[in-house]
Structures
1.
Amino acid sequence: MEIQNLIKPFEVEHFEVDECPCKRHMHTYFEITYIRKGTGEYNINGNIFNYKENDLFLVPPGSDHFTNVKSTTSFLFIRFNNIYLQAQYGTDKQFNALSDWMHKLEYILQNGSHLKGQVNLQPEDQPLSKAVFEAILQGLDSQKSLQNELMLQLINTTITVIARNISMHHTKESSSDTGHHILQFIHQHIHEPQKLKSENIAAHFNISPNYVSEYFKKHTHGSMQQYIMQYKLSLIDIRLRHSDMRLNEIADEFGFTDESHFTKTFKKYKGISPSAFRKSLTEESAAPVCTASLTEETR
């Protein structure tokens, strides 16, 4: 299977076709696909979606996907890679150690998998989304000053809308019981270890510590502390993949005593040190892959 790579931090591509030239493939970057018009099938990791006008898809790295066009389709693709993510985080972190940007990305990666590719926008977000995509399309041919900066803002707005809708969709599909709210509380306060002590959570929800313990045993087959650690590690994985944060910065953010404590804990659960894990990602990205095929309309 063809594996496509993106050399530039981001790119936007638009084309209108009766038969999609993109056969079954995978890529090493994120891809947002907006259907401006047309109908067909979008196959993402074996999940088949019947697409139509204004449909929106998020295809994460490593996804096996292809389309079958049924009627003339106008595709708008927004692609971005780790370099783009690191650049955005680098801009934000001078104001906040954990930027809003990283929160958005975490929501996409942690809660978006159950969507299987398609993003179902809330009715109130559909006009905004359409306007943003049309502005991005118009910007492809614009030679105005600061056009690149405007495109970056439009792409970031798109990611914000996607993150918000994934968040809302995830909440609606989740159980409304106290246990679910405990999980949300843990996710919200993952950087505040004092609040995540069993007795403090029990007091916050006015329940017994035994209820908290039994809930995690029943639904996660482990303890609350094990769940917290696994969730921390999933966020640390994102830091190592999509940011240039130093190990001591990550250790400080997630409440480890120091870098040595962080390294020992990471290796205990992952079987590899965080520095070796990050190095392996660099080696993977440097491996020979096919470059994403571009059309004349690619900018």
Note: The longest strand covers residues 65-80.
2.
Amino acid sequence: MYDLNQLRSFVVLAEELHFGRAALRLNMTQSPLSRQIQRLERVLGVALFERSSRSVGLTRAGSFFYPEAKRIIRLSETATDIARRMAHGLEGSVSLGFTATSAYDVLPRLVTACMAQLPSVHLALKEFTTQEQLDALESGEIDLGLVRPLLARPQVPSLLMSQEPLVLALPEGHDLTRRAALHMRDLDRRDFIGFSYDSRYFSGLSEAHFMANGVRPAIVQQIGHIHSILPLVGAGVGLALVPRGACQLGVAGVVFRPIESVLDQQVELHLIWRDTESPPALTERLIAVARSLA
């Protein structure tokens, strides 16, 4: 079987049609160049050059072989470059899980930064709940995830990406919208749309604020997702506490107001990845991009 050195020697000689000039380009003497060509011809079983004391020319077989030899060399060089870039985390594909609310702010910023800093890296985005992301991370379905604070498996490495306060979502025209400032105490015995157990992080965070402020709202509905809660708020079903990023959803009939609480506990979003001694280079590159945004 021929090797790449023999192919390179053939290509250069085919372009120069002169052993002296070809040897100079290849940084070798004419004798080893001649031996490389002879070995290649023996492997192929055909003559690639017509030689005389005065000239060198390609045979018909050599003319057909020339573009194919160049293509093989180019593919080899491309494959080598891709392998090196992947080894250094500059090329390849990485799967990133995210929660629905992370798509309001952090996810777009992270994707934009990756596109700018790692243009040859493909991000495969997958929307999951926090618990689903933990399972997907463990099974290898995703490489990283944007999740709410971990309720279990604290051994998973993480990076705090953002903190934001809870705000009050109200229907337009509600009497509380006319107040200059709102406090959690204002929610006592008010009709309220809470989070279901499926969203136990938000459910637990809301409950913590209620208890700290001595508030007992009247829970009329319990819903799992913010984008389902807000239309019900707009319909006048009840009030809701949501992360400030939800204001970007622009749901008709819903207004948002800051609300004071004696509990200084905000909504957090973390980037997580598998706990290994040596994460893949591509994962490390993406973590580095995320750190620049955190």
Note: The longest helix spans residues 60-87.
3.
Amino acid sequence: MSLTLRWNRLMSARRVAQISWSHKAVGEEFPLHDHDYPEVFWVSEGVMRHTVNGVTTELGRGRLVFIRPLDRHHFLGAGENGGTVCNFALRRDLLAAARRRYFARHRGAWWHDAAMPLGVQLSGAELRALDQAARELASLRTLTIADVDRFLLNLFHLLREREAPERQATEPAWLAAARRELSDPQKLAGGVNQLVRLAGCSPEHLARMVRRVHGVTPTDLVNAQRLDWAAVELQFSSRAIADISLAAGFESLSHFYHLFRRQHGVTPRQFRLRARALT
């Protein structure tokens, strides 16, 4: 059963935003819910198991997720000591107004139609900066629209520093087709060189388009696909982790572990054990 959280029932209609921290011990959960307002949260400490729109993942420290109204999700403390989430929620009309003023061309964050909400991994420095901005916001006795705008601008400035220049709204058909072909395990190990061959363009043009559309380098894009494939193999096959790493195209097992933990918040072994515990 799912709850629907409504702004006017939870707080005064005059309240412009709410920032809060919530710690969940291992196994402690916040129940399944959706809401009539947008929010963004990040894991400031520990590990959380997050289910959103029917998909469950482990979120490690520094993972940030934009939750749209009607995204249905819940949290469960995971890892060794559970996790702490910082949540920033605001009135829907105020976000719409802020978008008109500052983010009219933005196609990420809350403003997309994908099935899953957008998530990004913050670096240690980015997480410290965001935590500091959140603490400053929480120290104010009464939040104003100007306070909300300032926090949003700081957040998007932080993300813009780590991402690409303005992304284009749609992916060219040739790039989408190349990425689909690359998902074939026989081709995935070929990495960026294979993606260039499948795209049928120069490495330089591929790099420019990947950066424009996805905000990452071709290497980052390929590694993300490799790690997604590896996650499926870990969950549904009995292959050794070293074999999965090699099949995905990672020559170094330690590098595979490093990238996997950065993307999924846990080691490959922990991911396998916890994914199987859910089935």
Note: The domain at 3-161 is CATH 2.60.120.810 (Jelly Rolls).
4.
Amino acid sequence: MNVQVPQPLLSVVSIPLSQIDVGERLRAIDVDAAAVIAASMQEQGQRTPIEVRKSGKRYQLIAGAHRLRALELAGIETAFAVVVKADDLEAQLLEIDENICRRELSPLDRATFLAKRKEIYEALHPETKRGGDRRSDQMDNLVHLIPSFTEASAQKLGLDARSIRRSVALYSKIVPDVREKIANTWLAGSGAQLDALGRETPDMQRQVADFVVQWPGVKNVAEIIRQISGKPRKKKPTLYDKLVALWEKADSATRMKFHTYLEPEMHMGDAE
């Protein structure tokens, strides 16, 4: 059994912008990016339609928020659009999938979209959840035919299953108000630093987020925590410190080679 993909009701149609409602979006519109698209539209027009669905006598935007904003900036009063038949969950899934496929997503944005996609996918297919709602013996027999969230997302979006699981885990480790506060900071764009943030307690995450907003020049979570905690800066390791560290990591065979290498020097010292 495969996920049903909502199908267009019509080919591309022209819809007045005044009839299209944007609603809440998972990702804020980048006005600068929209301005670049608007400049292109003024010269070449709208080349890619947006996706909408009917909502009473109006239309609700599914995908293409930046294009829609660009049309407004360009002074174009109508949008080319594809009208899609989709319920609330399917519409959110379409919005998420369009954004996930974009290269400019930050690691935090990607984690947010994938986590939301997991939530929606499992709402549409509760039987794929661990301990999910399997209402009959027949469903028990069919559940193996429905791919898990990770399998379905990897196939549809062309992403590595491991990276999907890691992104969803990252999203869950950072508390919601912190995710919101750091969304437009340098921290949202660094996967390694987000991982470091996710290992901290919610209280420390909030302190780090406040620090990042106030002092954006410090771009290392460990250093931020050091400053928040008032701990002294670690001294730069000397050559001796590095040699000792390497010695402690070395196995017996490597240590024997090192000893053999030093032995002539040691005898020379004894002779003097």
Note: DSSP finds 13 helices and five strands in the chain.
